[in-house]
Amino acid sequence: MHTQSLAPWQHEHAFLGKKHHEHERRTWAVVLLATVMMIAEIAGGLLFGSMALVADGLHMSTHVAALSIAAIAYSIARTHMANERFSFGTGKLGELAAFASAIILAMVALLIGYESVARLVNPVEIRFGEAIPIAVLGLGVNLISAWLLHDHDHPHEEEDHVEHDQGHHADHNFRAAYFHVLADAFTSLLAISALVAGLYLGWVWLDPAVGLVGTAVIAAWAWNLIKSSGALDTVPSRERAELVRQRLEVGDDRVADLHVWRLGPGHLGIMAVVVSHNPLSPDHYKARLSGIDGLSHVNIEVHSCPSHEARDFR
């Protein structure tokens, strides 16, 4: 059989998100912004003695690393999406990058917590007037970055009213990058509040204290990212898996084995074993799954069994 005659049964394994290219461009733009602001905040914080500003700049440096990982993952996934070495495409590279970003975010929280406790024990003089403008500038840059990385898309409606699972359509890599700059914006806002209070009320202790608040919030965000991006091969939606089973189990047809997993943003893989005393072709069973959102790679194995064994599956 000639290779050309196999074309109807072949398909690409490019399981990238619909907005992959746009997300890649936006992420690289934010990397540039974060790098410039990182240098300004660390230099300004050391010069003017602000713990909150130094903390913001220090964890901005780790965000630059994390955002760079996200951007590089986009580039590698796009470049190698047709590489046959990746059996199920490069869609999961974003998940791995998001998981790495979540770990870095957790380390950021620990670093801020450690530095804040150290400054509570050993306070340092803060030049509030010089530090506040830099913190305000940092907040502005972070808000611009957050806007660039905010995805306004909503989950699509599905004809079978499957419960919306944002984890199916979500680009976890883009989401992780968004939470990094959101953490920066939150820390910048805390820094400004602490610096203003220190300037007008003399509450020098508030500067490192808000660092501890930032530690708790950022650690919570990091934990949520770890859970969502680390679940690589878990069933993305029980409702969707049950819908697949219901569609395949018609009459005496029964599903003996079913695997549903995420291949990339908006892409699901299905492997199912169907047994029946009157089996049909695999294409017939695949047609039953039409209309279910996101099924990009479907493999169905069909087996025949005696009538009395088929009844046992009921």
Verbal overview:
The protein has 314 residues and is mainly alpha-helical. The chain folds into two domains: 8-230, Up-down Bundle (Alpha-lytic protease prodomain-like), CATH 1.20.1510; 238-311, 2-Layer Sandwich (Alpha-Beta Plaits), CATH 3.30.70. It is built from ten helices and three strands; from the N terminus they run ααααααααββαβα. The protein has helices at 20-48, 51-79, 93-121, 128-149, 166-169, 172-201, 206-230, 238-248, 282-288, 307-311; strands at residues 254-264, 267-276, 295-304. It has a three-stranded mixed sheet with strand order 1-2-3. Helix 9 (282-288) links the parallel strand 2 (267-276) and strand 3. Helix 1 (20-48) packs antiparallel against helix 2, helix 2 (51-79) packs antiparallel against helix 6 and helix 6 packs antiparallel against helix 7. The longest helix is centred in the middle third of the chain and has 30 residues, at 172-201. It is elongated and about 85 Å long. The chain starts with 19 loop residues before the first helix and ends with a helix.
